[in-house]
Specification:
The protein has four helices and eleven strands. Strands 1-4-5-6-7-9-8 form a seven-stranded mixed β-sheet, sandwiched between helices. The protein starts with a strand and ends with a strand. Helices cover 26% and strands 36% of the residues.
């Protein structure tokens, strides 16, 4: 098992992984298009194969988790990648880590809540709009639930203290 930051030499493999697990090389968040294979993130490998991947985007609003996948669910890969990302957000001076997920992902919502994330908004109908740009988004998800809305979740964090003062982001 090895864990590392995404390198430029990983981009093609990450793109293929994203396409396999997300149906396309793009992901949508709040109506915005992202290309996760071009963003920063962390890879977990076993026998040289990607078994876990987390991608993120940092801006003035904090660190947004774009994708998180583990092909070996229940082994702690997703949790360990999230903990690494949260620590990276602190190092970068972010005050929050946040993400969006869809209304059908009850198990995923519980996973993030166990990590301390809170639901802060529901963007009604956003997924219906996103399907116009990314038609690969299915109409129905877990347990046959119609996918229509986006749930925004966030974890407020304190950046690392530098020289007696809080690092600003």
């Amino acid at each position: 098992m090895s864990r590392s930051e995404i390198q430029d030499t990983d981009r093609d493999e990450v793109a293929a992984f994203i396409e396999k697990h997300w149906g396309s090389r793009i992901v949508m968040s709040r109506g915005q298009v992202f290309y996760p294979h071009l963003e920063r993130g962390f890879i977990e490998r076993r026998n040289a194969l990607i078994v876990g991947l987390l991608t993120y985007h940092v801006d003035d609003d904090g660190m947004e988790i774009l994708t998180l996948n583990s092909v070996l669910e229940g082994t702690g890969i997703g949790s360990s990648l999230m903990i690494i990302a949260i620590e990276e957000a602190r190092r970068q001076g972010c005050h929050r880590v946040w993400l969006t997920t869809t209304n059908d992902k009850l198990r995923v919502i519980g996973f993030y809540q166990r990590l301390g994330f809170r639901m802060i908004a529901i963007n009604l109908g956003v997924v219906d709009e996103a399907r116009r740009i990314k038609p690969q988004i299915p109409e129905h998800g877990e347990r046959g639930v119609r996918i229509r809305d986006e749930i925004v979740m966030e974890l407020l964090i304190e950046p690392y203290i530098e020289s007696g003062a809080v690092a600003s982001g």
